[in-house]
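User: For documentation purposes, I need each entry recorded in a consistent format: the amino acid sequence on its own, followed directly by the corresponding structure tokens. There are two entries in this batch. Please keep commentary to a minimum and don't merge the entries.

Assistant: Recorded as requested. Entry 1:
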Amino acid sequence: MSLGVLIADDQALMRAGFRLILEAEADLEVVGEAADGLEAVAAAQRLRPDIVLMDVRMPGLDGIEATRRLTNSDCTAKVLMLTTFDMDEYVYESLRAGASGFLLKDVPPEQLVSGIRAVVSGEALLAPSVTRRMIEEFVRRPPSTAARPAPRELERLTAREREVLVLMAHGLSNAELAREFVVSEATVKTHVAHVLAKLGLRDRVQAVVFAYESGVIRPSEG
């Protein structure tokens, strides 16, 4: 079964390049293209792709606002942000808008392809160059009250699930969590799924955002 991909970028040559890369993969299918944010939102709602490759900077409605509209709708597509600009404000706002990952446009083709698969499967995906800065920025900023789940939702977590949330926020992978808890990766995946479901979160990236903005991770722990 192939994964449906929608490409949203205002540059036709960039869209063509992405399409060429993706259509070489047997498990990926480009289901549509969009040249701006409004087109991206409409196309995603109509075509129901598994993932949207979303350019950050587009005319009219930018990629961040388009992502926000999609994640606040009934659209279930994951959003992978792509940009030529390694700038912190884009990263933070993209993740707060609901993006599931963030990559620079100049990544090698194989990294783009593996990134799409990772995001669709629920793994966190951030360009290595921005991951540590993102965490540092979250612990420097005062916690935001915007869109923070009620305390009772945190109380639904078991002690082990809370540990999983904290370690996910520190960037540990499933394999690293399995080693930490001396359990199988299948058990870890179950814990992660429970954490996301109980907190009403889309994926691991949103779990990182939640952990820092809700105060689960304190500045002293950054």
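Entry 2:
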Amino acid sequence: MIRKVVFRAGLVLLLLSSAFATASPSPNDLIANGRITEAAASLRARIQANPRDAEAYHLLGRAEYALQHWDQAISNGERAVAMQPNNSDYHLWLGRAYGAKADASNFITAADLAGKVRDQFERAVQLNGNNTGARADLAEFYMSAPGFMGGGKDKARAQAEQLLKTDPAAAHWIYGMLAEKDKKYPVAEQEFKASVKTADDPATRWLDLASFYRRRGRMTEMEDAVNNALHVPGRQPHTLYDAAIVLFRSGRNFNGAVEMLRNYIGSGDPTEEAPAFQAHYLLGMVLEKMGDRTGAAQEYRASLALAKDFQRAQSALKHLER
């Protein structure tokens, strides 16, 4: 009898370990890996089983945000906030969805949405003063929006002063952006360099500096900053994707951008900041610019295999297949 009990217990443990080993990825993992179609299906099933699952609505909103489906991202974000109004991150992502829709809209619609963007970011900061992403996004809103929409440089500086305590690199980035808006370019450059020196992730801040050089037409220095970002020890995998964007926007070193994107995709370690389906789409755009229509079409199809509702890839592929 004892042997049978032991055997059965061992069998149960073996079955449990096998189940855990073959368990399906969580929606968070699917979103992080850019497998948006799978993530959305999983989250909709969760919501159907439990219509009060605020986290499922929040994550579905982020999946729709990645697809640039702003109305759907807003709808799901609003439901998550209604269910858990004291969650700082929920307000942050809803504010981002409002902001993305505003950026893609005409002036009247954008003006109507501006107050919603500001309210969500301000609420996110009120709920969690250590939410550095919310403070940085709120500061960026204050920098970009005119005064009658609630913007203001002084308000942005106030957020930067708070960030100096928790994320000095983000604070210096804000100071740099403010100086650039005031056309104080030497001061802006100093602030962007200070952001690099104080950052926990210098690679990201090197790319901010590279973008500044691109905007100023200082292309050699831009490429040097990109290379410095790539050589930061322990840099985040999505640095390759972000660096490729800088090169693509500058119209320089497309071969380097292609290599970066292929290495990023091949690493098997994509992140939500740079979903795999968007990396394939960007690679397709670079290849198309280089005249490789066949390679571009392959990348657009690879993007759609991960996110079948990604309209930009759909449109790009249709354009190539005409």
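Summary note for entry 2:
Residues 1-22 have pLDDT under 50 and may be disordered.
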